[in-house]
NADPH:adrenodoxin oxidoreductase, mitochondrial
Amino acid sequence: MTAMAIFRSRTWLSRSFSSLSSHPLRVCVVGSGPAGMYTAEKMLKAHQGAEVDIIDRLPTPFGLVRSGVAPDHPETKIVTNQFSRVAQNDRCSFFGKVTLGSSISLSELRNLYDVVVLAYGAESDRALGIPGEDLSGIYSAREFVWWYNGHPDCRNLSPDLKNTDTAVILGQGNVALDVARILLRPTEELATTDIACHALAALEQSSIRFLPLQSLALNQRSCLKSVICCAKRMSYYYRKVYLVGRRGPAQAACTAKELREILGTKKVQIHIKEEDLHKSPEDEEELKNSRIRKRVYELLSKAATTGPSLPSSGQRELHFVFFRKPDSFSESAEYPGHVSGVHLEKTGLKGVGSGKQIAVGSGQFEDIECGMVLKSVGYKSVPVPSLPFDHKNGVVPNAGGRVISDTSGDPELIEQGLYVCGWLKRGPTGIIGTNLHCAEETVASILHDLEHGLIASPSTSTKPGREGLLQLLDDRNVRAVPFSGWEKIDCEERKLGSLKGKPRVKLGSWEDLLKVAM
Ligand code: NAP
C-alpha cells in the first residue's frame, strides 16, 4: 500500500467512525443481532461516558432479525428501527465485515477495549450423530432459513425441491414451524414478502407444493384430468411435509401463536393421530404447570378432532408425527449419496424428576420415505480461540454475563472486562425480546464491576479503543463497512423492492452487498 493510499484509507475510516469524549469507557460489542444491539442500547443509556463499537462479520447488521425471522413475519422486524437509532447514536459505531477470530483475535480485542461483550449468537447446528447424516438432501434448518432469508453464506445452498414430493422436518420448535410454513404457504403470498428471490423462484418450482394450473401449457391444461391421474399414480399429487417430534403433543416445543398460524395456512390439510393425544397423569401435571404447553396441546387436539378437510385441488398435507426419534437416514438406490428416507424409532416417555419427561426408544421402528430432510433440533454456538467454553451446554460459562474462566462456576475465576450476552450466554432459546432482559443483566454486571474497580475507570485506562481498532484493521488491510455502508444497502434493497411490490429485494451475495456498501 502506498503512503498516500494509507493516508486516504485512514482519513476515510476516521471520518466514518468518529468519537466524542477524550476519556470514554471503551466498549466493544461483538455481534449486531438483538443481543448485541440491546447491550449497546442499554450501555449507552446507562453510562454517558461510554463509547460503544459494534463489530459484525457480515456487512449487514441485525443478525437473526435479518437472517432468522421468517419473511412472512414483517411485524417482528420492526425492531430494526430501534436498533438503527442505537447505531446512529453519536457515541456508537458499527464495523461490518470484521470477523472475531480472523480479522482480529479475542486477546487483541481485549487489549484494545475496557469492556468486550460477546453477543455473536449461535451460527452452527446441533448434530444428531446418527448414520447417514451426511447424505445430500439433508440440511440443517438454519441453513435453509439463511437460504430463504438471503444470508450471503447460503446463497448457493440450492436445496433440491423438484425431485421429491415429501419433506421431513425433525423437531417441533418454532424454527421447525417456520420452515414448514415456508415450504407449504402459497407462493403468491410469499411473493409480497422480503423472501430472497432465489428462494421464491425455487419454491415456485417445488414439487413439495401443488403444481398450479397456470404453470401448465395450454395443451396440458386441456388434459388436466389425465395430468392429475398421472400425478396421483406417481404419488406426486399430494405434497407432504412431516413434522416429527421425539416426545408428545404435551411437550411440543413450539408456541401457540406460531402453531395457530401453521394450522390456518391456506390449502394445507392437517393430519394428527388422535391416539397420540392420550394424556398420562405426568402429562396432565406438565400441562398444568405451563400455560404455553396447555394452549399448544389444546390447539393440536382441536386440529386432530376436526380432522383433515376433504381433498381438493392444490392441497398439501402437513403431518404432525409424535413419539418418534430419528435413528438413521437411508440412502437412495436410484441416486447414490442422496437421502431417500428417515428410519424412526417409536418412543415412550420416562419421568426424570421435577416434572420433566424424556423420550426413550421402544425398539420398534418405522420409515418415512422422503427426498429432503430439514434438521431443526437446535442451533449451536461456536467458540473462538482463548474463549472459555462449556462444550456440553454450548455456552460460555458466565455469572450474570461475566465470563468465568472454566466450567466450575467459581465466581472467583472471572475474566476481567469480558462479558457475554444472548444465545452465547444462555443457549439457543427465547424470542427477540428475551435478549432485552439478557442485555439488562449483562450491562448491570458491567456497571457493578466498574463501580467496584474490577474494570479500570475511563480516567486511568490506557486502552486505545476505537483508534486502536482502526489502526489494527488498517494494518491488516481489513476494510470495515460502516453503518452508512449498510444504509446504502438498505436503500438499494428497498428501491429494488418497490419495483416488485415487495418491502425489499435482498442483495444475496457478498459481492453484491460489498459493491453497494463500499
Ligand atoms: P427449540 O424450541 O429448542 O426446539 C428444538 C426441537 O428439536 C424440539 O422439538 C426438540 O425436542 C427437538 N430435538 C432436540 N434434540 C433432538 C434430537 N436429538 N432428536 C430429535 N429431536 C430433537 O429450538 P428452535 O426451534 O431451534 O428455536 C430456537 C428458539 O428460537 C426457541 O426459543 C424458539 O421459540 C425461538 N423462535 C421463535 C420464533 C417465533 O417467536 N416466531 C421463531 C423461530 C424461533 P425436545 O423438546 O424433545 O427436546
About this structure: The pocket of NAP is lined by residues 128, 170-176, 178, 245-247, 251, 253, 255, 258, 325-326, 359, 376-379, 428-431 (CB under 6 Å).
